[in-house]
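To: structure subgroup
Subject: Chain for Friday's discussion

All,

I'm putting the inputs and outputs inline so they're searchable in the archive.
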Amino acid sequence: MPPAEATGRSSRGGDGERNGESRREGRERGIVPRALDRALQDTVGSSRQDNVRRPGPYDRPGLGKGGYGIGKGGVITTGSTFPSSRAPPVKTLDRSKTCPFLLRVFHKIGGHHGLEAFAVRGKEPVDDELQVYTWPDVTLRELADLVRDVAPEARSPSAKLNFRLIYPDKGGRNVMTELGTVASSKRGPDDEKPLSASKFQTGDLLDLAIHP
C-alpha cells in the first residue's frame, strides 16, 4: 500500500507539472484560458458601453449632436438658450460713452411735406425744422416728447404724430418711408421703436405730420 500511495502522489504531481507547462506554453503562444477569455470579454463589453455618448449638461431634449433641432412651433434652432417665442436681448447703447449726432426733423400741422420740398439740398423748409442732438437708439416716443416742447399742437390729448424717413436711394433721388405713429395721450405699438431699427443713416431727414 505505501508504494501505491507514493505512486499516486507522484502521478498527481506529474499531472500538475504537465498542466503548468501547458499553461505556460499557451501564454507564450497567445492561447488564453477560457475563464480569462470570458473575463476579458466582459471587460471589453463594459468599456464599449462606457464609450456610448451620454447626454451632456448642455444637451436638451429634441436637439441632436451639435445642438441642432426643431424648437417649439417648428422653428429651427441651433442650440440657443432662448425659447423660440423670445428674441435674444438687444445690446443697449451707452449714451454716456457715445457721441450724439444732429437729427433734422421737419414738422407740419395736418400732413406731411412733399418730397419736392427736399429736392434741393440746402433749400429745405427750415422754418419748420427742429434740430435735435440724439443717439441711434432714440425712440419715436422720445422724439414726440421733444416735439411737444416746441409745438403746442402736439400737446393736444387727441394729437397724433406720424413720422416718416427721408433718404436718398441708389440713384440719388429722395425716398419717403413710414416709421410709425405716436399718440399724445396714450401708449402705442410704435412708441418704443428705435431709429436704428429702420433704414436710417446719419444725415437722413425725418418728416413729421402733427394731427391735432
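Points worth raising on Friday:
The two ends are 134 Å apart (CA to CA).
The first helix runs from residue 2 to 29.

D.
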